[in-house]
């Protein structure tokens, strides 16, 4: 049995360095933080070979007393903390006194510093933990630190370094976070003597976002500012169109420090619920300010994670603030044909996504209530525009003629389809869920295309509506409202319908009896895997309630772990709304089109369906005119 022995200091340092210094970017982070803590207003970063050869950080901060230089490399030596109590009111980025010791243990470091009140400064080197004597140094006030040959004495770790470009990517990210966290700093970043970023001090937060992520993203942000008690939240949140495939564009800063926080990230995503498709992530630059005693930053080796005293309150604060802010915006998806035409190489962000221009395949396949074989109805209402002159009047002449034919057609076919839908009870449009608004029809210029889209003239431009997505959204909101107000209409089945399920499915369903009942779906246990459906929400109209119920069952049994009750209710609601809504492929009568459009005007949050697909695309009048070279 080997004996226990105390490790030599250098081994301890190397172990500690393993936690703090993962790669060159970690060194850059620690050095930048030290410069900020030193009160620097300008920091210049030079990198060679992705940081494997050289990392140099020069600042104009307070500098270091010549006598303190060697102490700077000692572990647990810091000027930022005096007592244990200070740990709970930390105002600096660093406080553990570990970074320089770690870096000095695994690289060749030269530290040069001069306090502003001294005529000259001093320098020291530390290589693999070995300190040199201190010498005079005649440099500018501030601190200059060079880290060469990172991991030179830990060959295994040096081998793990990635290509310079990759390491540089990580460094740029660290640099970006700091530049955003401290928007008054003048910062430069150079790689192999080439400027990567030059961030002047006068560049504010929004300018910086534009500098790092491009003007297009910058121009799709909404400013946000809220306070709650001592907590303050401000920054920018992205239009849903800025969505990404991962959460990298969600920048969160706490008291000037970039942090990662699963819970607050979740709050942000939840705030965008219904505006983004599953698996897509919002863009946000959020700054949270809290009294230091409300948060413990001493829980993570690189301080990237923190612990909040009241995480729940913060969650609702962030969720509520973002949600509220989004509600104030008109989030109708906008197309910018000009920019995409101008550059054919620009990938249209959504072109590969299903559901933007055609109904999703699974949707049509699932379509419980689709009615194949109905004749298509085309409808163009509203008086043709004859106020225009010249070339345009000729055009409108054609249109007028066309519209004449079509509306005649639609007169006949519309009638036909109405009859059929009445017979089959297929469309939930006309009845309870959806009061018809007669008299509106002549005022609305709308046509249905492909039995799936409504094209509408609005003052802003040509609006293309996805009929299913829009109806689904409206029904979803109505259902939600009625459930909240306790006015949801349910239809009792005179004779309960037995539904046969597997024992496991039945158990799942019966477990969720509460939320199902809130939705109007009454279920009772019949035994032997059979449950009885006793009632259903009236919104389904005459659509077979068992089929919709079956879908709910499938949904419940597909989940490994059920989400929270609120989420479950939300998911079930959108399932019901989806089933009750008109489908792509359903021809609509003029009245139905008018009703749908009118409901859109009345509802307040109709730009995306509950699954996050947009309900409408706007081709702005301006863009149209521009495309046709009228302006
Ligand atoms: P910490 O930042 O946690 O205190 P470090 O090991 O990063 O620990 O730094 C040790 C000490 O060296 C700091 O407390 C600070 O006094 C001094 N120091 C390091 N970098 C700078 C700098 N750029 N300007 C002024 N002082 C610095
Ligand atoms: Mg530090």
Short description:
This protein is of the alpha+beta class.
Sequence-ordered SSE layout with sheet pairings:
Elements: H1 9-20, H2 24-37, E1 42-48, E2 54-59, H3 69-72, H4 99-105, E3 108-114, E4 121-127, E5 130-131, E6 135-137, E7 142-148, H5 155-159, H6 164-181, E8 186-191, E9 194-199, H7 205-213, H8 215-218, E10 221-228, E11 231-238, E12 250-254, E13 257-259, H9 262-271, E14 284-289, E15 295-296, E16 307-308, H10 311-327, E17 333-334, H11 337-342, H12 361-366, H13 390-424, E18 446-449, E19 453-457, E20 461-466, H14 467-485, E21 490-500, H15 503-511, H16 513-518, E22 522-527, E23 530-537, H17 545-558, H18 565-580, H19 590-602, E24 616-620, H20 621-627
Parallel strand pairs: 1-8, 12-14, 17-24
Antiparallel strand pairs: 1-2, 2-7, 3-4, 3-7, 4-5, 4-6, 8-9, 10-11, 11-14, 12-13, 15-16, 18-19, 19-20, 20-24, 21-23, 22-23
Helix pairs in contact: 1-4, 2-6, 9-10, 14-18, 15-17, 17-18
The structure holds adenosine-5'-diphosphate and magnesium ion (MG).
Magnesium ion (MG) binds next to helix 2.
- Gyration radius, rounded: 32 Å
Distance between the termini: 88 Å
Oligomerization: single chain
Q: What is the averaged pLDDT score?
A: 79
Q: Count of DSSP helices?
A: 20
Task: Describe what this molecule looks like in 3D.
By secondary structure, the protein is α+β, with helices and mostly antiparallel strands. It has 20 helices and 24 strands. Strands 1, 2, 3, 4, 5, 6, 7, 8 and 9 form a nine-stranded mixed beta sheet that branches. Strands 10-11-14-12-13 form a five-stranded mixed beta sheet. Helix 2 runs parallel beside helix 6, helix 9 packs parallel to helix 10 and helix 14 crosses helix 18. About 17% of the residues have low confidence. Bound molecules: adenosine-5'-diphosphate and magnesium ion (MG). Adenosine-5'-diphosphate (ADP) binds next to helix 2 and helix 4.
């Amino acid at each position: 049995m080997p004996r226990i022995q105390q490790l030599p200091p250098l081994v301890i340092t190397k172990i500690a360095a393993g936690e703090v210094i993962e790669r060159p970017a970690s060194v850059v982070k620690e050095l930048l933080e030290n410069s900020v803590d030193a009160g620097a207003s300008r920091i210049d970063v030079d990198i060679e070979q992705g940081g494997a050869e050289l990392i140099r950080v020069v600042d104009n901060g307070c500098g270091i007393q010549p006598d303190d230089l060697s102490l700077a490399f000692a572990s647990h030596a810091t000027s930022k903390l005096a007592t244990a109590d200070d740990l709970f009111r930390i105002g600096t980025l660093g406080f553990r006194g570990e970074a320089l010791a770690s870096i000095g243990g695994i690289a060749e470091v030269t530290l040069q510093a001069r306090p502003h009140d001294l005529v000259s400064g001093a320098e020291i080197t530390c290589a693999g933990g070995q300190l040199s004597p201190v010498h005079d140094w005649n440099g500018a006030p501030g601190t200059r630190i060079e880290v060469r040959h990172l991991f030179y004495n830990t060959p295994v770790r040096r081998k793990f370094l990635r290509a310079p470009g990759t390491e540089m990517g990580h460094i740029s990210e660290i640099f970006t976070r700091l530049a955003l966290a401290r928007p008054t700093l003048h910062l430069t970043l150079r790689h192999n003597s080439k400027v990567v970023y030059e961030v002047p001090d006068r560049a504010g937060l929004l300018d910086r976002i534009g500098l790092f992520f491009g003007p297009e993203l910058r121009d799709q942000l909404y400013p946000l500012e809220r306070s709650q008690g001592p907590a303050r939240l401000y920054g920018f949140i992205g239009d849903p169109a800025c969505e990404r495939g991962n959460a990298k564009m969600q920048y969160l800063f706490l008291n000037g420090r970039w942090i990662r926080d699963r819970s607050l990230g979740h709050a942000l995503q939840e705030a965008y619920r219904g505006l983004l498709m599953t698996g897509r992530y919002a863009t946000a630059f959020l700054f949270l300010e809290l009294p230091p005693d409300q948060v413990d930053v001493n829980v993570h080796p690189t301080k990237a994670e923190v612990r909040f005293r009241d995480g729940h309150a913060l969650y609702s604060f962030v969720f509520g603030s973002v949600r509220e802010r989004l509600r104030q915006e008109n989030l109708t998806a906008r197309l910018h044909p000009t920019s995409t035409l101008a550059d054919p190489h620009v990938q249209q962000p959504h072109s590969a996504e299903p559901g933007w221009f055609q109904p999703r395949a699974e949707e049509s396949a699932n379509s419980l209530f689709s009615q194949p074989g109905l004749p298509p109805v085309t409808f163009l209402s509203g008086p043709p525009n004859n106020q225009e002159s010249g070339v345009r009047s000729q055009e409108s002449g054609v249109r007028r003629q066309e519209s004449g034919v079509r509306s005649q057609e639609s007169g006949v076919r519309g009638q036909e389809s109405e009859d059929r839908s009445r017979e089959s009870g297929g469309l939930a449009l006309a009845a309870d869920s959806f009061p018809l608004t007669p008299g509106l029809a002549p005022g609305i210029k709308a046509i249905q295309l492909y039995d799936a889209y409504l094209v509408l003239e609005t003052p802003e431009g040509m609006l293309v509506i996805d009929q299913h997505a829009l109806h689904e959204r409206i029904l979803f909101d109505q259902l939600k409202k009625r459930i909240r107000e306790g006015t949801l209409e349910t239809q009792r089945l005179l004779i309960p319908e037995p539904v046969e399920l597997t024992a496991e499915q039945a158990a799942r369903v019966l477990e969720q009896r509460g939320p199902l009942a809130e939705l109007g779906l009454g279920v009772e246990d019949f035994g032997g895997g059979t449950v009885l459906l006793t009632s259903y929400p009236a919104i389904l109209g005459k659509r077979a309630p068992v089929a919709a119920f079956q879908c709910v069952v499938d949904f419940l049994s597909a989940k490994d772990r059920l989400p929270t009750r609120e989420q479950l209710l939300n998911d079930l609601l959108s399932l019901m709304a989806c089933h009750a809504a008109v489908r792509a492929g359903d021809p609509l009568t003029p009245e139905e089109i008018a009703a749908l459009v009118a409901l859109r005007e009345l509802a307040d949050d109709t730009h995306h369906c509950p699954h996050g697909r947009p309900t409408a695309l706007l081709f702005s009048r301006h863009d149209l005119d521009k495309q046709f070279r009228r302006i």
